[in-house]
Structure formats: structure tokens, C-alpha cells
């Protein structure tokens, strides 16, 4: 399945399927899942990257366990909107996911997601060591929540225009 437009994603998902969000780094992959109603994202795990085959096997197991019907991969644009090596790593990861599972996938701008995750954890009172250990999965939940919020805004706007 090709990379899709975010607004097309809800219509491509099976009923009650969850979305899985990814914060892709050079050393780790943060993961988050949505609730079946596609309203709330929650961090679930950080995978320490090894070989793609091992990483893919863990992702495949989590997709099955959580009933995932689509992917949201954070893409690391530079602040000026251009793409650098981090964005290319995210695109390559997205292509690997598409080969792993024939599910719809959206690339979501992730600029400042790690900063937002760190701030949210600090405000919640997480100790420094705990913040560092969980930052990637929390960043994945920020990325996923940004998309869920955009979809909710679109549903509200469409409802207002229809009424």
C-alpha cells in the first residue's frame, strides 16, 4: 500500500483498528498506539535498534497484539522545511514498514516532537532518568496525537460545513 494523505487515512482503516505511531531515531524507535476511536495516543515501547529483521519482528508482534490498522511515521524535517539525513532515515523506515505489513501509512511532520515530549514529561514530574528512558515512546505519542487532533478538527469542520 502506498504512503497516503492523512485525510484519507480514516476511510482506509478497518472498524475499531488502532493506529501505531513511530518516532524513528538512529539508535531507537519510539512506539505509540491510538485508542480504537482514534482520539488518544499512548506511548507503549522504545525499541533499541539492532538489525532490521529483529526490529521488524518486534514491530510485527506489536501490530498483531494491538490490532493496528495503519501507521503514522514521524518525519524529521529541518526547521526550514527541507529534508536532511534524518528525514531520509524516516522515509527508508516507512518503506520497510510498508514491506512488513500492507497497511496505510502517513508521514507526519515531527519537528519539535521530542522537545514537546520532554516538556510534557517534566511537567508530569518524571525524573530525569525516566524521561531519558521513555522520551522516544512519548515523542511517538506526540506525533500520533498531532495527527489524531488534525483528523478530529477535520471531522468537526466537515460537520459544520454539512450542517
The CATH architecture category equals: 2-Layer Sandwich
Share of helical residues: 40-55%
Query: Rough shape?
Result: globular
Rg over CA atoms, rounded to whole Å, is: 15 Å
The structure class reads: alpha/beta
- In DSSP terms (H or I, runs of 4 or more residues), the helix count works out at 5
CATH hierarchy, class: Alpha Beta
What number of structural domains do the residues give? 1
CATH-assigned fold name? Nucleotidyltransferase, domain 5
Secondary structure: number of strands: 5
CATH superfamily: YqgF/RNase H-like domain
Summarize the structure.
This protein is of the alpha/beta class and 163 residues long. The protein has 5 helices and 5 strands.
Describe the secondary-structure layout:
Blueprint: H1 9-12, E1 18-24, E2 28-34, E3 41-48, H2 52-66, E4 68-75, H3 85-100, E5 105-109, H4 113-123, H5 128-162
Parallel strand pairs: 1-4, 4-5
Antiparallel strand pairs: 1-2, 2-3
Helix pairs in contact: 4-5
Amino acid at each position: 500500500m502506498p504512503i497516503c494523505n492523512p485525510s484519507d487515512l480514516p476511510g482506509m482503516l478497518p472498524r475499531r483498528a488502532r493506529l501505531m505511531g513511530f518516532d524513528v531515531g538512529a539508535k531507537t524507535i519510539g512506539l505509540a498506539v491510538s485508542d480504537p476511536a482514534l482520539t488518544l495516543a499512548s506511548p507503549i515501547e522504545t525499541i533499541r535498534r539492532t538489525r532490521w529483521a529483529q526490529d521488524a519482528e518486534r514491530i510485527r508482534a506489536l501490530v498483531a497484539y494491538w490490532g493496528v490498522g495503519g501507521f503514522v511515521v514521524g518525519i524529521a524535517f529541518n526547521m526550514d522545511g527541507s529534508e536532511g539525513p534524518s528525514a531520509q532515515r524516516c522515509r527508508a523506515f516507512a518503506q520497510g514498514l510498508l514491506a512488513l505489513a500492507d497497511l496505510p501509512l502517513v508521514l507526519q511532520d515531527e519537528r519539535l516532537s521530542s522537545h514537546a515530549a520532554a516538556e510534557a514529561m517534566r511537567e508530569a514530574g518524571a525524573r530525569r532518568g525516566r524521561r531519558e528512558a521513555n522520551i522516544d515512546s512519548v515523542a511517538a505519542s506526540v506525533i500520533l496525537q498531532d495527527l489524531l487532533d488534525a483528523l478530529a478538527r477535520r471531522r468537526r469542520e466537515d460537520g459544520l460545513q454539512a450542517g
